[in-house]
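My main concern about presentation is that the manuscript never shows what a single data entry looks like. An entry of this sort, consisting of the sequence and the corresponding backbone structure tokens, reads as follows:
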Amino acid sequence: MDKKNRPLFYRGARALYNRRPRASHGGSPPFAKACRGGLPRLYNRQAFRYNERVREIADDRSFALVLGGGGTKGAYQIGAWRAFRELGLRFHAIVGASVGALNGALMAQGAYEAAIELWRTISIDRIVTVPRGLSHNPFASFAELNRVILRNHGLDTQPLRDLIRRSVDERLIRASGVDFGITTYELTDLKALSIFLEEIPHGLLADYLLASASFPAFRMAEIQGKRFADGGIFDNIPFRMARSRGYRRIIVVDISGLGVNRKPDVVGTETVYIKNSIEMGSIFELDQEFIRRFMELGYLDTMRIFARYEGIRYFIAPDPALFAELDRLIREPSAAPSLASLLRSAGAVSGDSLLHRLREHLPRDMREYRDISLPLLECAALTLDIERVRPYTLSELLAEIRAARDRVLSDGLPLEEQDLRSLLRPVRRALRTGDQSRSGLPRPPLAYDLAIERFASARKRAVARSALRALFPYLVAGRALLAILDRYLDSLPTAASGS
């Protein structure tokens, strides 16, 4: 077969075969000696000592853990760790990039309480030295930040180095038996480095962790005369590193960080992929309320993936009996007039069943959901801007819906068309780039939808409603459920209404 025209899979397989360790009559070549006992790590052509526990790990059904990079969004991974502990999951291997490497080191040594405390007290002066004259959070002003970086060759990370040395116990990690690895980028030789603990010289683990977390705005980390940059430059989600090591049961925790986010090749593996379900904050968001909420989101997302919660955008404890009752209320003939009225006002085409037409007014990520009751419930909660980053029982969520609905109906909202336009413009920008856990409006979207009904001009009503519902596509479905549930919500005891 002509070399040039060989299929890609053939050339790849041939290259793999040719790199296997070989014996020779004149003794083993140096590369073969380095690889004795296992295959070389192909992605950077360095040998590693084969881990005999790979077969055990395949037998005892435990996982390898892959932690992505993403600055202070790393709080999410600590929330996921809380869920792993409650679920009884164990990890024989942990690999991480950037902040994922730092969190992975804490997980490998089992320092859960220390990790919680570290994230609850994190501040800019525990990461970099803030030069005099610069604002308290230098990342808040890019103009100021660029001047400092150019003048000082990057922000001084001595505080982060000290924090790593205080928090990470290399002796405990080496004794844990966890196959721990990190990614970084070697600037001196312009090459990526994926390295496991056994290859890191004793006493230098903290230096390699700092190297993996050396964000481009930071002063470059230096180890034994070589300079390093953030591992996210090469591979921000080092799935391939775990897979090439021989692991096939893998949990990935992706925190939507910057960098090269390679799509994992999951074929032939059992992979659980956990990613933040709500976009919120930036990679250098240091507000403690953000840290707390993002950590909680990591816990809730993980528990929902492992079926401890139901929900699409909310986290609801399973309650089959009450969900069945909710579904019955939605399908009752007495609900039809309310639905028909709302769908006509929304411009729905007649002819199909009311529930089928209602599905067309659900957000795209909810339309194919098997049972319509859960999407409708969540649309009602979103319409009332009810907090998403917390767990609910179904009874609690219904009580929250009742309390929020009562506040909207009692307060009223005087609104003119020009006021709505000026409100929606910044909200549209915020929903694209900022915290998507809330509507961004001063009042719940339902309040504005009700206020539009009082516009004198029918044309202005139609234009305003179209703009509002384009931004909040759950409004029609949410109002439909509220209309159906009016009598049921009024029957709930007031004391159950929560906050």
The longest strand covers residues 179-186. The mean pLDDT is 80. Residues 288-305 form the longest helix (18 residues).
